[in-house]
Design goal:
This protein has 17 helices and no strands. By secondary structure, the protein is mostly helical.
């Protein structure tokens, strides 16, 4: 559920107008849609892929986590590379790499090959997404046109998940789960062919040094933490679990130290230490933890417990996507009048109630009485949360920091999704195993639902913590927002 916040640029007087800019926007939109689709399309295909490749319940989360972790961990570095190497160049490289990684995943013969392919997809998405965002920023310099262009970008970000769920259901139902990955290949090829003549090159000037130590330490730290949570399914106190979680804490602390000391940080600490921005990033991280877990377990509940087909599951998720899109429009009207805190607080309260409703699922509960109401509560709540959260993330930011502040919203959601999927999958698998041990193998279906509801219970608590963070930390006034003088680079 990534909700990217575009950085905008002031128009340059006398800048030449690109007559092909709207066709270029269509190409960028195709590429962005592919990235957004891939986050949701695989959720529907996951049960089929798990059966086909013999993936265990404990390891299935890596199909999602490998992508989100690489994406979130490398997104800030990807933005820097796009700025310095050239946005058109990295856009095309990202498309080609994403297609290649998709092909690798589509022909995967075992779980290791699929996990590796998903990680590669995430890495190239981290190059592609900020390139696309930067290209829009530098192509559309007139304010009204720029607003329209970002409107298209925002609609794709909000509505792409719905299309992914339906497309994933159709491809899995009538072809194979493999086509949920292979479908990216023709899309990427078309985008590359069109990008060459339609998109213009641009790059940042001045200091182009990379914070490689920062990128390495933060990415390794996150990978170790996710892996530690995964191993915790066997034992929270085992030497292996404690080693990886402990190593992750050390690496992330080292990352902070590097960012404080280096003259060209990947993530300047001043971006995080502002009260409103810091609160919005923490909220974004927590929401990512809860939401990614919800999608994973609700997919398995629909297909495994309710017996839905992949296609029916896709359509069953549609109310969620529709609710987010509609309530986001409402939030954009409420935000200038009431400010971010009241709107976000109401949204997160609704999200907490929706997640709590999911804890009441059972083997015999119905979609209309349990799943649908919780989806509607969650979706409206998230729509009310995403819009003010994105705005607050840029409140009072210095012009030269606006790009990295914008990217941080996407990064925290992806990292939250990675950690949440690993943590909640461990909780669910442990609860299921304990129930089977206590009640016998004849209760497998009930044991799985016990695991799902335990995960939803933890997700509800995490959502409630996000509500508390918002109420206590966010204090931006109505009308406060991002600096209007924002550089044309992201990251």
């Amino acid at each position: 559920m990534a909700n990217p916040t575009p950085a905008t640029a002031e128009p340059t007087s006398g800048a030449p107008v690109d007559d092909k800019r709207w066709l270029g926007l269509a190409v960028i939109a195709i590429a962005q849609l592919m990235v957004v689709l891939d986050a949701s399309i695989v959720n529907i295909a996951l049960p089929s892929a798990q059966r086909d490749l013999g993936i265990s319940d404990a390891d299935r989360q890596w199909v999602v986590t490998a992508y989100t972790l690489a994406f979130g961990g490398l997104l800030l570095l990807g933005g820097r590379i796009a700025d310095y190497v050239g946005r058109k160049t990295t856009f095309i490289i990202g498309l080609i790499g994403f297609a290649g990684a998709s092909a690798l995943g589509g022909i995967a013969q075992n779980q290791e090959m699929l996990f590796a392919a998903r990680g590669l997809q995430g890495a190239f998405a981290a190059l592609l997404a900020p390139s696309a965002l930067s290209l829009i920023t530098v192509t559309f310099v007139e304010p009204k046109e720029r607003a329209k262009a970002f409107g298209v970008y925002g609609a794709i970000a909000g509505g792409g998940a719905a299309l992914g769920l339906i497309l994933g259901g159709i491809l899995t139902e009538f072809f194979s789960w493999r086509w949920c990955l292979l479908v990216n290949i023709p899309v990427a090829i078309i985008a590359v062919i069109l990008a060459v003549p339609l998109i213009k090159q641009s790059r940042a000037e001045g200091d182009r040094r990379y914070d490689i130590p920062g990128a390495v330490t933060v990415t390794l730290g996150l990978v170790f933490m996710v892996y530690g949570f995964t191993k915790a399914e066997q034992s929270w106190t085992s030497p292996e679990t404690l080693f990886f979680i402990g190593a992750s804490i050390v690496l992330l602390a080292l990352f902070v130290l590097i960012e404080v000391k280096t003259s060209h940080p990947l993530l300047p600490m001043r971006v995080l230490l502002d009260r409103n921005r810091g609160g919005s990033f923490i909220t974004s991280l927590l929401v990512g933890v809860a939401l990614f877990g919800m999608f994973l377990f609700l997919t398995f509940y629909m297909q495994g417990t309710l017996g839905y087909s992949a296609l029916k599951s896709g359509f069953a998720f549609l109310p969620f996507s529709a609710g987010v899109i509609l309530s986001a429009g409402l939030a954009s009207k409420l935000l200038p009048r009431f400010g971010p805190r009241p709107v976000m607080a109401v949204g997160l309260a609704m999200g907490t109630l929706g997640m709590a409703w999911l804890t009441q699922l059972g083997v015999d509960t119905a979609y209309l009485t349990h799943v649908l109401p919780s989806e509607l509560l969650l979706s409206v709540g998230m729509g009310l949360t995403f819009v003010p959260l994105s705005s607050t993330a840029l409140t009072g930011v210095a012009p030269h920091d606006a790009g990295v502040a914008s990217a941080m919203v996407n990064t925290t959601q992806q990292i939250g999704g990675s950690l949440g999927t690993a943590l909640l999958n461990t909780i669910a698998a442990s609860a299921t195993a304990a129930f089977v041990l206590a009640n016998g193998a004849q209760s497998i279906a009930e044991a799985q639902v016990v695991g799902y509801t335990d995960a939803f219970r933890v997700a509800a608590v995490i959502m409630a913590v996000a509500f508390i963070v918002t109420v206590t930390m966010i204090n931006a006034k109505p009308g406060a927002g991002a600096s209007s003088e924002v550089p044309a680079h992201v990251g």
